[in-house]
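R.M. (postdoc): so does anyone remember the format we settled on? I'll just put the structure tokens first.
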């Protein structure tokens, strides 16, 4: 069973939620607002009081009622009946607020309780080697994200009329995704033979001048904040990558408080698994930069490069993304996925096409062009 906790309000014990708008933590029960420093100080004092065996107030808890117990039993039975292959990807946890048993995927690090709807952080999945170095907090709140999505869709002509209705918008979810962020220093050298051609005419004679040069380029290159996905199950990886770049300079030391009110995933891709691919990418880009410095030649031949990786550092971070899905009304029931950068508002996704609206537009355009042609020889 996974250990869980909820960040509690110092005043009333209710769950705290992080608000991207003011970058503070809000209690929806007593309406108090706290800074990260205040929440951390309160939790530290509670932890110290617990260790010292003091008589500090116990956290507000609730005992699940008979109905919740039955739901727990049903959920546990369903979990037991799950195939072994699926069990490997699913785990049970107890909600710290109502005691209900919830099934989650093995990579889930923060979520909501299905029954009491309070935010829950699964502590064991964000500790030890899985503890992120930094987190980039959401800067765009849900209401602003909805408006940005709608504005984006209104710029498109041929989407279905009911696209992004209220029911779909309610499914907008803020998720912290795990990423590896890489910094590297590289020494590079390039040797080649550069050729230039000059052609001119004097009267009826054409002259061609060919010159060849020994070309050498060398230098030190630094790469900062190369972002790589650290979650294998992200089937929409290209879409999520398309909302880059992230303002990594705004990332702060990881605090689990910033996950409150959002979902979060832990990594299941270790850096060693992608290190060779990252190094190859860095070397290819370094070679490209060296070649670009010799752009003044007509051609480069006998090209030789020597790329050495001097220093490489990787950082495990949680980065913010708003996600929304749209299921088409067609027989195919195709699901469309959309992502938005939780800091910059950049949107990515493939929009569905209403062939009815496209057909009407095409027919209307054809009619206009035909009318212009008939009344005045417009095409002549």
């Amino acid at each position: 069973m996974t250990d869980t906790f909820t960040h509690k309000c110092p005043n009333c014990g209710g769950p705290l939620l992080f608000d991207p708008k003011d970058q503070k933590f809000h209690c929806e029960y007593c309406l108090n607002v706290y800074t990260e420093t205040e929440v951390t100080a309160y939790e530290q004092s509670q932890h110290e009081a617990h260790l010292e065996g003091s008589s500090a107030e116990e956290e507000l808890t609730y005992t699940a009622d008979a109905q919740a117990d039955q739901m727990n039993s049903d959920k546990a039975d369903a979990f037991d009946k799950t195939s072994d292959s699926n069990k490997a990807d699913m785990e049970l946890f107890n909600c710290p607020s109502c005691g209900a048993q919830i099934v989650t995927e093995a990579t889930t690090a923060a979520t909501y309780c299905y029954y009491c709807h309070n935010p829950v952080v699964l502590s064991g999945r964000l500790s030890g080697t899985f503890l992120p170095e930094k987190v980039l907090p959401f800067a765009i709140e849900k209401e602003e994200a909805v408006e940005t999505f709608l504005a984006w869709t209104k710029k498109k002509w041929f989407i279905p009329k009911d696209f992004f209705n209220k029911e779909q918008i309610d499914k907008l979810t803020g998720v912290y995704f795990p990423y590896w962020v890489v910094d590297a220093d590289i020494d590079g050298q390039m040797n080649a033979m550069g050729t230039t051609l000059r052609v001119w005419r004097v009267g009826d004679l054409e002259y061609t001048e060919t010159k060849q040069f020994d070309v050498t380029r060398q230098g030190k290159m630094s790469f900062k904040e190369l972002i790589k996905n650290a979650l294998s199950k992200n089937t929409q990886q290209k879409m999520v990558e398309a909302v880059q770049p992230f303002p990594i300079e705004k990332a702060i030391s990881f605090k689990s408080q910033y996950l409150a009110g959002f979902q979060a995933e832990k990594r299941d891709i270790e850096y060693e698994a992608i290190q060779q691919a990252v190094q190859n990418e860095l070397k290819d880009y370094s070679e490209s930069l060296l070649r670009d410095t010799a752009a003044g030649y007509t051609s480069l031949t006998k090209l030789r490069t020597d790329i050495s990786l001097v220093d490489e550092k990787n950082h495990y971070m949680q980065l913010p993304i708003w996600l929304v899905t749209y299921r088409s009304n067609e027989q195919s029931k195709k699901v469309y996925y959309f992502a938005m950068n939780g800091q910059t508002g950049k949107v990515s996704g493939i929009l569905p096409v209403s062939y009815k609206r496209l057909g009407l537009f095409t027919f209307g355009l054809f009619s206009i062009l035909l009318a212009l042609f008939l009344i005045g020889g417009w095409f002549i």
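R.M.: ...and that's the designed sequence above, right after the tokens. Also worth knowing: Confidence is low (pLDDT under 50) at residues 54-88. The first strand starts at residue 16 and ends at 19.
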